[in-house]
Amino acid sequence: MNRRERADHLYKVVTSDRFLTKQGLGNEVPFFICPYPARDGLSMHDDRRDLIERISHAGVKVLDLSLYDLSLAILKERDILQQILEVEADSEKAEIKELLQGVLDPEAHLIPKIGEAIVATDHDVIFLSGVGEVYPYIRSHNVLNNLQSTAKDAPTVLFFPGNYTHALATGASLDLFGELHDDKYYRAFNILNYEV
Q1: E strands along the chain, which residues?
Q2: Gyration radius (Cα) of the chain, Å
Q3: What is the C-alpha to C-alpha distance for residues 28 and 108, in angstroms, rounded to an integer?
Q4: pTM of the model
Q5: pLDDT tens across 30-79, in order?
Q6: Kind of pairing between the strands at 31-36 and 156-167
Q7: Which of the 8 DSSP states describes residue 153?
Q8: What is d(CA 52, CA 55) in angstroms, rounded to the nearest whole number?
Q9: Which one, of 107, 148, 117, 173, lies nearest residue 25 by Cα?
Q10: Residue 160 needs a FRET pair 20 to 30 A away by CA distance; which of 5, 23, 70, 147 works?
């Protein structure tokens, strides 16, 4: 599916009553993965912005959240962003990774931040982006697992730079950048396969 086809499909799906009323999900959480080639990362940012504008003209309200922006906000609020920047050059990567994974723990910090945005903003659908920018500090399957209790009322679309595949033998997998196997996540639907 090329960029134009993907954008048109997403528009049709996200503005459909079937999607907005969470039909055809078999009582699963309304989580969707929008996989795209990692090489399209910069263009996907613009495509997502255009899509949000088109969707809003159709009367559908989107809560657009970036995991990267949320992470920066958490670091700033906790007054540690500057400290991390100062010690990063002289620290081992493993130390920085461990520090950020603790400070940005999805269950303790990131999901509550997303929950605040959900409560504060009227929306019909949630878009989550920034997956590649927060790797390896935040893993997409951890976000989705912890988000199940917080974002269950509106469909949530995770824009994922890589592949989301389903196979009977191996189950479902999120492969970041098309190369890094990011554990199994079974409860989301591939939005590119969603029928309107």
Answers
A1: 31-36, 62-66, 125-129, 156-167, 171-176, 180-181, 189-190
A2: 17
A3: 24
A4: 0.91
A5: 999 999 998 888 889 899 999 999 999 999 999 999 999 999 999 999 99
A6: parallel
A7: S
A8: 5
A9: 148
A10: 23
